[in-house]
Amino acid sequence: MGPATMTLAETRRRIRIDRERLRRCLTERGIEGGMTFSPALLCVRLYRYSRYFYVKGWRRAARLVWQLNLFLTGADISPLSDLGEGLLVVHPFAVTISGSAGKGLTVEGWGGMGGGMSLEDIGAGPGLPLLGDDVQLDRSAMVLGAVRVGHGVRIGPGCTVVRHLPDGARVEAPAVRVRRAGEQDEALP
Amino acid sequence: MTSREAGYAFAELRRELREDIDAYLGFASEYAPDRRTFGKRASAFLTPSVLACFWYRLSHYAHRRGWRRLAFACAWANLLTTRASIAPASRIGGGLYLPHPSTGIVFQGTAGRNLRLFAGSGVAARYLPMSARELRGAPRLGDDVSIGAKAFVGGAVTIGTGARIGFNAFVDRDLPPGAIVVSAHVRSRVAEVDQPPRR
């Protein structure tokens, strides 16, 4: 379940790194600004404080901030989740995160991670997944159950993972077929 | 950046919003044909579908005038009241139809007239937050495009006029006009059901 202590200084350090990560997203494309009103930043910040309150034992405050996050941004990030610095949630609405992850987790939107059918504990809580560093969850991708996902794994749009994945694995999005009216189906490469 | 982009008058906003309401009433009349009275239009305006369009149009108007804070305030109001995330910088023609905005619709890009975004669909640049002031790497959609439930169009792609993207499809490449995209997930396998025990 991660560290037993979470200081305010550590919370702020993580928020600073999260913020830098979001800024890089914009500056890499040559876009200036766009940080002040970002739901992506607000949802991560609220999660960090709810986590801080939870670890400190202020459960009601943690719950209040978690609920505020749910109301304002639509992201359901449990304060029980231990997520490393550099967290990026691009479109927070309908994102659910329960479990643990290392540094640099990216969640594009409409997905996340959470409990499966069993209550086995592999270190993230009963039935919850344990993700390594630099894991990327594309839109509508989900990791469900007590599974270990290695470092640098990328899970494609619309994919649901319910098994262990080694370091560097890539889970591809389901294939699509495209056709024009009156033409035969043509499989996309 | 406070530059003011020309070419989006308030009259245009009203015209596009009227087209959005007409699109909504057009779909509604498929189920219950009715005359389009003022009361019907007012009632349609208060539905989440049209409210999401209204907030987006207002945020885009403010964005084009260079009023960035107001633009994002409207985008936030949209997120809070209807749960649709539509970037103020997006350009969408009239006749926008969002049947279920509360399912977390995301739009960030440009689109022509009569765009239809069904439940949980998304059109966005990859890993670019909604608050970005410019749309670099975002999709460009033609007129009469339909994005199915849970479908996602991501990246700097061009989708031709009249393209229809089906349920749960992921599109990250250009599509010609009139293309129909079907996901491999359209068929579900039904597990064999155990027979009830005989007594």
Commentary on this structure:
The complex is a heterodimer of chains A (189) and B (199). Chain A has 189 residues and is α/β, with parallel strands linked by helices. Chain A has one domain (3-171): Hexapeptide repeat proteins (UDP N-Acetylglucosamine Acyltransferase, domain 1). In chain A, 28% of the residues lie in helices and 23% in strands. Chain A contains three helices and 16 strands. In chain A, a hairpin with a 5-residue loop joins strand 15 (176-180) and strand 16 (186-187). Chain A is globular. Chain B has 199 residues and is of the alpha/beta class. Helix content of chain B is 30%, strand content 16%. Chain B has helices at 10-29, 38-45, 48-65, 68-81, and strands at residues 85-86, 91-92, 106-107, 110-111, 116-117, 122-124, 140-141, 146-147, 152-154, 158-159, 164-165, 170-171, 179-183. In chain B, strands 1-3-6-9-12 form a five-stranded parallel sheet. The mean pLDDT of chain B is 87. Classes of the chains: A alpha/beta (189), B alpha/beta (199). At the A-B interface, helix 1, helix 2, strand 3, strand 6 and strand 15 of A face helix 4, strand 12 and strand 13 of B.
List the helices and strands and how they pair.
The complex is a heterodimer of chains A (189) and B (199).
Chain A: H1 8-27, H2 39-56, H3 59-72, E1 75-77, E2 82-83, E3 88-91, E4 95-97, E5 100-101, E6 106-109, E7 112-114, E8 130-131, E9 136-137, E10 142-144, E11 148-149, E12 154-155, E13 160-161, E14 170-171, E15 176-180, E16 186-187
Parallel strand pairs in A: 1-4, 2-5, 3-6, 4-7, 5-8, 6-9, 7-10, 8-11, 9-12, 10-13, 12-14
Antiparallel strand pairs in A: 15-16
Helix pairs in contact in A: 1-2, 2-3
Chain B: H1 10-29, H2 38-45, H3 48-65, H4 68-81, E1 85-86, E2 91-92, E3 106-107, E4 110-111, E5 116-117, E6 122-124, E7 140-141, E8 146-147, E9 152-154, E10 158-159, E11 164-165, E12 170-171, E13 179-183
Parallel strand pairs in B: 1-3, 2-4, 3-6, 5-8, 6-9, 7-10, 8-11, 9-12, 11-13
Helix pairs in contact in B: 1-2, 1-3, 3-4
